Amino acid sequence: MSTRVTSAAPATAPGAPVSAVRTPAPIELPREVCTLYPRASRLEWLLTNGTGGFAMGTVAGSNTRRYHGLLVASLHPPVARVVTLARLEESALTPGGAVPLSVNQYPNTLYPDGYTRLVRFSLDDGPAWTWSVGGAEIERRVRLVPGAQTVVVRYASSAPARLRIEPLLAFRDYHALTRRSPDAWTGFEEQTGAQGRVVRFQPYGGLPSLRIAHRGGPFSGAPAWHENVEYLEELDRGLDFREDLLLPGSFELEVAPGHPQIVVATVEAASTLDLDALGALFGRAEPRVRPPTPGRQGSRGDDLGEGRARLERAADAYLVRRADRSATVIAGYPWFTDWGRDTMISLPGLLVARGRLELAREVLEGFLAHLDGGLVPNRFPDAAGPAEYNTVDATLFMFQAVHAWEQAGGSPAFIRDVFYPAACGIVDAHLRGTHHGIHVDPRDGLLVAGGPGSNLTWMDARVDGAPVTPRHGKPVEVNALWYNALRLSERWARQVGDGPRARSFGRDADLVAGAFDRAFWNDARRCCFDVILPEGPDPRLRPNQLFAVGLPFPLLDGRRRAMVLEAVEAALVTPVGLRTLARSDPGYRPTYRGGPAERDSAYHQGLVWPWLVGPYVDALFAVRGCWAETRPRARTAIGSLAARLETGCLGQLPECFEPEPPFRPVGAPAQAWSVAEVLRVLVRLGDG
User: Phi/psi class of residue 648: alpha, beta or left (left: φ > 0; alpha: ψ in -120 to 50)?
Assistant: First the structure.
């Protein structure tokens, strides 16, 4: 059976409105960037395959994270991720000797020095490196096969060249590191056929074998270990950062103008690999010889239309199918899988705003299938085991996702037959009380998010088992979401002719509305308390109160909504998103560095989260109107973020930024809700 080139996600339903977005210009980096290792090794690229598997690395060519690799396979999509092929090391074989094209970080040294020969890097559908060797330009391009655990690497050259290719193998869980082991099987099997050569490796039992196919010379050489390869991003994160990689041998390729060579690596259980079909993943056969325009990394990187085009491409990285073929959303790369909260926040931007309504409905139905006690899962575990329901807000954000889907033209039948019955059960479960102490206070109708020791909101960091930002009790955004869930349920009840339930939902919503001002208004700061703890209100200035202003059914009167917006703008808005805590607060943390405990303690103590730009713009338009005077403010709020697509993980937006200039990207380098909320705002503004 051949490895097939197929689409990992279904096409948009016929008749669904699809945004017409131009193809983004490539991100191009010139020699002066590529050969400056401290910079080039901090610039990352990402490819995904629609199953949770991915490839990731740096512009310099080195791996700087334990998660980097040419083939990080998802053995039970989207989990059970394994770094199989860590990298391919290349050398150009010239009359003067071997010229290395690769680079690794070892203790106190970089070796070899291939990055010094880079003349350009570009990223469009995939990454491409171009080296200059003896007057020839040698290009390497990488693609992943959609829906398969297969990577394809193409080599091309402007002049005849001979390349030596050395695979480095990891074969380990992507969170782990491996060391030299006598248990590693260092033999290999090689077969030759009409398609070329296929060499098979399986260093450890219990993991699938890796097959590498090519049309070069025979595999040869004695196995060896590359010891103490260092991943400096892991060192920065306070984690183990040294690994030993297995080099089983090498093979050679002859590359000539008009005759590129394909190397394929896969863990798929296919008996043959169709190199010709897989080569069709690439376009032109010749390497690019025109250098990028000086001083430009992309042709229109500062234009919001170009930003939208790049975000459209970025969004597809997060859309995956589980092993059972159900659709879901990856929260971020490289270490997150699918999380309920992240999925529901991301859905309006990743899918609904782009007109992909049928796929959005499929994702919603997939999570509804796992409802338990009126809650959708917060997280599906990496290994076999039950889903985790430790979230108070994921299910409430689902109501907002369904509302956006309905407003975009989603079928009323889904509301009537699927979601409205589920909504009734969800509301009833919250009224009765459900997992983790989530319940409605019968005195005021406000929703309580668990008790001491729980952290069920999106601000969920823990250190030594204790919440960093205790928000048990009545969080402001949770109650804004709860109020909106009741109002939406009331409206849907009337649509389906369920008068008694409509009146019941309405009474519950009225109770919340009457209690909200009394509970949450902080007259001293002219804004909302962040959470009503059992011991009293928390007056810290945080962005969560924006949900009481910008959701479809706002709370507070018009004057107070304006005060909330002014307070947030004055203290929390930055060029790259919103701070999670005012700088004036004693708990404010201006950096995000050190080991896990130090970083987790700063996670929501000022750190900037780009996804919050969406709720901010919603509140901006709710208070000041979507007029000519306010739209420039919204464009300013996302303009710097669009430009950040050319920094960090190229073409993506990170999970967070440090809260002080230069706003260094931190956390996961590619995050779904960051991309989704900026894209949603751009679509709302009509830019691009």
Answer: left
- Strand bridging mode 319-321 / 224-230: unpaired
| DSSP bridge pairs for 265 | 151, 212
Q: Is 491 helix (H, G, I), strand (E, B) or coil?
A: helix
Question: How many angstroms separate the Cα of 74 from the Cα of each of 174, 208, 340, 631?
Answer: 10, 11, 19, 42
CA–CA distances in Å: residue 327 to residues 298, 340, 360, 361, 624: 33, 13, 9, 9, 38
80 Cβ contact list (under 8 Å, min separation 6): 74, 382, 383
What's the predicted TM-score (pTM) here? Answer: 0.94
Cβ proximity of 640 and 576 under 8 Å:
yes
> Which segments of 143-186 does DSSP mark as H helices, in order?
none
Residue 295 gets which letter from DSSP? T
Say how many C-beta atoms besides its own lie within 10 A of residue 372's C-beta: 13
Q: How far apart are CA 83 and CA 101, in angstroms?
A: 22
Six-digit token pair at 97?
A: 């000797």
Distance CA 663, CA 657 (A): 5
Whole-number CA gyration radius for the chain = 26
Across 202-337, the runs of DSSP E, i.e. the strands, are 210-214, 224-230, 242-247, 251-255, 261-266, 319-321, 327-329, 332-333
Half-sphere exposure of 483 (CA within 13 A, CB side): 27
Domains of the chain: 29-279 (2.70.98), 304-685 (1.50.10.10)
Short-list 134, 99, 128, CA closest to 34: 128
Lowest mean pLDDT among 9-13, 19-23, 139-143, 251-255: 9-13
Length of the chain in terms of residues written:
688
Rounded Cα distance between 246 and 86, Å, is: 9
How confident is residue 302, by pLDDT bands cut at 50, 70 and 90?
very low
Separation between Cα atoms, residue 522 and residue 560, nearest integer Å: 10
Phi, psi of 150 (to 5 degrees): -140, 130
Give me the long-range contacts of 510-516 (CB less than 8 A, separation at least 24): 511/444, 511/445, 512/444, 512/445, 512/446, 512/479, 512/482, 512/483, 512/486, 513/483, 513/555, 514/444, 514/445, 515/444, 515/445, 515/446, 516/446, 516/479, 516/480, 516/483, 516/548, 516/555, 516/556
Residue 680 amino acid letter: R
Between CA 108 and CA 5 the distance in angstroms is 42
Q: By three-state DSSP, how is residue 97 classified?
A: strand
CB atoms under 10 Å from CB of 443, counted, come to 8
Q: Are 548 and 554 within 8 A, CB to CB?
A: yes
The structure tokens listed for 147 are 């829906």
SS (HEC) of 576-642: CEEECCCCCCCCCCCCCCCCHHHHHCCCCCCCEEHHHHHHHHHHHHHHHCCCCCCHHHHHHHHHHHH
Tokens of 512: 């919340």
How many whole angstroms separate alpha carbon 469 and alpha carbon 477?
A: 15
CA-to-CA distance for 290 and 669, rounded, in angstroms?
A: 30
**Spatial separation of the C-alpha atoms in residues 142 and 165, rounded to whole Å:** 15
Torsion over CA: 269, 274, 277, 280 (sign)? positive
Poorest-pLDDT segment among 117-126, 183-192, 313-322, 532-541 = 183-192
Whole-angstrom distance, CA of residue 537 vs CA of residue 542: 13
Spatial contact of 52 and 320, defined as CB atoms under 8 Å apart:
yes
How far apart, in whole angstroms, are the C-alpha atoms of residue 491 and residue 506?
9
What is the band of 286 on the pLDDT scale with cuts at 50, 70, 90?
A: low
